[in-house]
Amino acid sequence: MPDEGPISVFDDPAPSDLQRLDDLLDQDNIERTGIRDARILAILLRSAEGELYAGLHGHSWGGCCEIKTLWVAEDRRRQGLGVRLLAAAEEEALRRGCCQIVLTTHTFQAPAFYEKCGFRRLASIEDYPRGHANIMMVKPLKR
């Protein structure tokens, strides 16, 4: 076996290295499943000056939409922006042929918000992070 070199641990890896890892995993997933419809999803809200104040990103693949991040600036919360972002994501997920949306959130973030928007809890991991829990949620989509 050729010399693999030392294992390197980073807390600030090059974005290109992270993208390469994602691309390689995507290739493996396609080879194993034959499902080739993966697409990035990004929905962004910007001020007139171009400043990002809310957004959502994730991806769709194989009939499922995963939301990785949903964020609204503190001074813009409780104005319906999160609901609007989720509604736009649902519309796009349906256009892409998805039957469900999945996401994770922490107990200190927004599980109650997601439940009000029709998501249900599937599982939680306690002490992730310490003193809190990570919650996996799903929302079936209806055509």
SSE string? HEEEHEHEE
Share of helical residues:
25-40%
Number of helix segments? 3
Spatial strand order of the main sheet: 1-2-3-4-6-5
Could you tell me the radius of gyration in angstroms? 18 Å
Q: What's the N-to-C terminus distance? A: 53 Å
Tally of strands: 6
Shape verdict: globular
- What portion of the residues fall into strands of 2 or more residues? 25-35%
Largest pleated sheet: 6 strands, mixed
Structural class: alpha+beta
Spans where pLDDT lies below 50 across 5 or more residues: none
Overall residue-averaged pLDDT value: 95
Structural account:
This protein is an alpha+beta fold and 143 residues long. Helix content is 28%, strand content 34%. The chain has 3 helices and 6 strands, in the order H-E-E-E-H-E-H-E-E. It has helices spanning 15-33, 81-95, 111-116, and strands at residues 39-46, 52-61, 64-72, 100-106, 120-126, 133-140. The protein has a 6-stranded mixed β-sheet with strand order 1-2-3-4-6-5. Strand 5 (120-126) and strand 6 (133-140) form a beta hairpin. The longest helix is centred in the N-terminal third of the chain and has 19 residues, at 15-33. The N and C termini lie far apart (53 Å). The mean pLDDT is 95.
Keywords, please?
3 helices; 28% helix; 143 residues; 6 strands; six-stranded mixed beta sheet; alpha+beta
Task: Summarize the entry for a quick read.
With 143 residues, the chain is an alpha+beta fold. It has three helices and six strands. A six-stranded mixed sheet has the order 1-2-3-4-6-5.
